[in-house]
Design brief:
The complex is a heterodimer of chains A (366) and B (300). Chain A has 366 residues and is an alpha+beta fold. Chain A contains 8 helices and 20 strands. Chain A has helices spanning 42-50, 92-102, 107-120, 136-148, 166-183, 194-200, 218-223, 228-233; strands spanning 4-13, 16-26, 31-35, 57-62, 65-66, 77-80, 154-158, 186-191, 203-208, 211-216, 240-249, 252-257, 266-267, 282-287, 292-293, 302-314, 318-325, 328-335, 346-351, 356-359. In chain A, the strands form 4 sheets. Chain A has a 6-stranded mixed beta sheet with strand order 6-7-8-3-9-10, sandwiched between helices. In chain A, a hairpin with a 3-residue loop joins strand 16 and strand 17 (318-325). Chain A is elongated and about 80 Å long. The two termini of chain A are 38 Å apart. Chain B has helices at 6-50, 53-57, 71-78, 90-120, 126-137, 145-155, 161-184, 189-198, 202-210, 215-231, 234-239, 247-256, 264-285. Chain B has 13 helices and no strands. Chain B starts with 5 loop residues before the first helix and ends in a 15-residue tail after the last helix. With 300 residues, chain B is mostly helical. The longest helix of chain B is centred in the first third of the chain and has 45 residues, at 6-50. Chain B is 70% helix and 0% strand. The chains are: A alpha+beta (366), B mainly alpha (300). The interface between A and B is medium-sized, with 35 and 24 residues.
């Protein structure tokens, strides 16, 4: 069981700063997902935690012990890679026990661990095969087995599911989730797939351009993104973002979209600001596709909107409908029985209780 | 689209089948011609070596021998039994073996180690060092003759098989390093990272993880080095003479020093003997020249 602490970590590759002042505190048994677009530094951060890359500034602590200069093999970690990184010349058995053999674990102990974990991962029938004779999913299981038998204190996953097809990816995701439930080991997981992040993490750290933009529970990140980047990165279809200005009418604040025509305003009275914007301040409001609802008077903070569909997509379970809204394209996620026709206005309720508001200049939540 | 006329379709099919057959035969014809062109000298060598001098003097280069005689091969290999001035290949053949085996082994092994270090344990200036290795590939043999002669002299291994092993190892390192570097660069770094986390060190990873999947490039390197070193004449003739000479030098001496009549049949047999080991290397190693042994380590 282990805790991990990253403090003020900075990393350069030549003149490019890949990680800037990273701080991360992971308690025992947590499942942290590092989420971000490619090139955001998430894999570099994971490699540094593993000890495969050196630290330029700052410290990495495992169980309150500074491990900056500790070799990867002595950090009591195990890592699963995107390309599986199995040793092609070895059988599955030798792949799995390679690490134990390096550690001079006794033969009986090796055999016991091997039996236990190969059963758990259902690879016990494959032990004498070579990696080339396995399917993608099986290779992934072997890679996990290799990490598991070591019984490490921290598991590191570097986009482990990216090479699998969609169906297998969901299956393996469930298994990783169950594994975490079962073992309760601290896990750090890198991905660019927000669905993986949302479904696996106890906390998500959203990264961009070498900075952790926000760290919090999946729910918090989804409901209260602290920047336009986070809001836009999480959620599919993406959040609707509309630029506009603040208008003050006495104490009541409202939002005027940039390209509005008919004097439409969106009241902001239900929103709790961290810092209240002034009259005329440029802001961005964000609301998720599911916040466009069928008319519902029971919502405590809402406004009626007339919307014209310009694109209707049936996803099976529901309809994703794109509307024109004050010069913006916005997406709604609606039940499939909605009677929508292209170009025909429909009345909806815009749920204002869960919108997010950002400052245009800083793109941060206000 | 109108429905296809079955009769017309059949005609099209027949004519394209005819065309295919025609081009297939044209291809075989061309390949056959080139094969004959390349094999002709070898054919002449073999038939000449099996003829008697009588027959050779009749001047029919391409005809098969009247009677197959291995006498000239025996002469080329073990001599006529004269006490002096009898040059034959046997001792020099073993000289060459004693030179080529360690030189190929050491240069291939060091090349693999270099390639591994240059790709999987990156360090500051590694690209510069690789560039210098590449530069080594372009240095002509002639340019290093004098400095190498001096070096061998200082080391006290001039005119010895050991000296030739050193020369060929050093000269071959550039090539073997380049081969292995280019091969290892395509092997995912993640495999090395996984092994490091598993607790394996520099040499353990090299021997347990990387070397077992290097068969294709080892074969390429061995063929390249073996051919180059076995066939080398310049280093052999510059750095050795007399009893320490490799087979190519001895072959040259044998052909050029015959005092009486030129014995073409013996010369041909000797040249063929000198070429057999390289032929064998191609025949046997070529079989293992399979690519894609890494398939399966990464995504399928």
């Amino acid at each position: 069981m282990a805790t991990l602490k990253v403090s003020n970590l900075t990393k350069n590759f030549g003149s490019t700063l890949v990680l800037k002042q990273i701080n991360l505190d992971v308690s025992d048994g947590e499942f942290i997902v590092l989420l971000g677009p490619s090139g955001c530094g998430k894999s570099t951060l994971l490699n540094i935690i593993a000890g495969l890359e050196s630290v330029d500034e700052g410290e990495i602590l495992i169980d309150d012990y500074v491990v900056n200069r500790v070799e990867p093999k002595d950090r009591n970690i195990a890592m699963v890679f995107q390309s599986y990184a199995l040793y092609p010349a070895m059988t599955v058995r030798d792949n799995v026990i390679f690490g134990l053999k390096q550690r001079k674990v006794s033969k009986e102990q090796i055999e016991k661990s091997l039996q236990h974990f190969s059963k758990m991962l259902q690879i016990d029938q494959l032990l004498d095969r070579k990696p080339a004779q396995l399917s993608g999913g099986q290779r992934q299981r072997v890679a996990m087995g290799r990490a598991l038998v070591r019984e490490p204190h921290i598991f590191l996953f570097d986009e482990p599911l990216s090479n699998l097809d969609a169906k297998l990816r969901v299956e393996m995701r469930h298994e990783i989730n169950k594994l975490h439930e079962q073992l309760g080991t601290t896990m750090i997981y890198v991905t660019h797939d927000q669905v993986e992040a949302m479904s696996l993490a106890t906390r998500i750290a959203v990264m961009n351009e070498g900075i952790i933009q926000q760290i919090g529970t999946p729910q918090k990140i989804y409901d209260q993104p602290n920047s336009v980047f986070v809001a836009d990165f999480i959620g599919s279809p993406a959040i609707n973002l509309i630029q506009g200005t603040v208008s003050k009418d006495g104490a009541a604040l409202s939002f005027i979209p940039d390209q509005q025509k008919d004097g439409d305003k969106i009241p902001l009275s239900g929103y709790s600001f961290e810092t209240e914007p002034g009259e005329g301040q440029k802001i961005i409001i964000g609301f998720r596709p599911e916040h466009i609802r069928l008319p519902d008077t029971s919502l405590k903070s809402q406004m009626q909107v007339e919307l014209k569909p310009i694109l209707i997509e049936l996803t099976g379970y529901e309809k994703e409908i794109t509307f024109e809204f004050h010069g913006n394209e916005i997406t709604g996620r609606l039940p499939r029985h909605v009677d929508a026709e292209l170009g025909k206005s429909i009345t909806f309720s815009l749920d204002l209780s869960e919108i997010s508001i950002f400052d245009s200049a800083s793109t941060m939540r206000i | 689209m109108p429905a296809a006329d079955p009769q017309q379709m059949e005609a099209v099919e027949r004519s394209s089948a005819r065309k295919r057959t025609f081009f297939r035969w044209l291809l075989f014809l061309l390949l056959g011609l080139f094969a004959i062109y390349y094999l002709a000298p070898m054919y002449v060598m073999i038939v000449t070596s099996l003829k008697t001098m009588e027959e050779i003097r009749q001047g029919n280069l391409m005809t098969l021998p009247n009677e197959i005689m291995f006498d000239s091969w025996k002469t080329a290999w073990s001599g006529r039994g004269y006490a002096a001035g009898d040059v034959f290949l046997r001792p020099f053949f073993w000289n060459s073996i004693k030179m080529v085996v360690p030189a190929v082994f050491i240069s291939t092994f060091l090349g693999a180690l270099n390639g591994y270090a240059l790709t999987k344990w990156r360090f500051k200036g590694d690209n510069l060092i690789f560039l210098l290795f590449l530069f080594g590939c372009f240095i002509p043999y002639q340019a290093i003759l004098l400095p190498m002669a001096r070096t061998l002299g200082i080391l006290g291994i001039a005119n010895s098989i050991t000296g030739l092993v050193v020369v060929h190892t050093v000269y071959g390192l550039s090539f073997t390093t380049m081969f292995f570097r280019n091969y290892y660069i395509s092997i995912p770094d993640e495999m090395i990272k996984a092994a490091r986390i598993d607790g394996a060190g520099f040499f353990k990873i090299f021997f347990k993880v990387l070397l077992p999947i290097s068969a294709p490039i080892i074969v390429v390197t061995v063929i390249w080095q073996f051919t180059g070193i076995w066939n080398d004449f310049l280093f052999g003739s510059s750095f050795s003479f007399g009893e320490a000479a490799p087979i190519q030098v001895a072959l040259n001496n044998m052909v050029l020093t015959s005092t009486s009549v030129k014995e073409y049949n013996v010369d041909m047999a000797a040249a063929f003997i000198a070429g057999i080991p390289t032929l064998l290397v191609y025949v046997f190693a070529g079989k293992y020249f399979i690519r894609g042994l890494t398939a399966g380590s990464v995504k399928g």
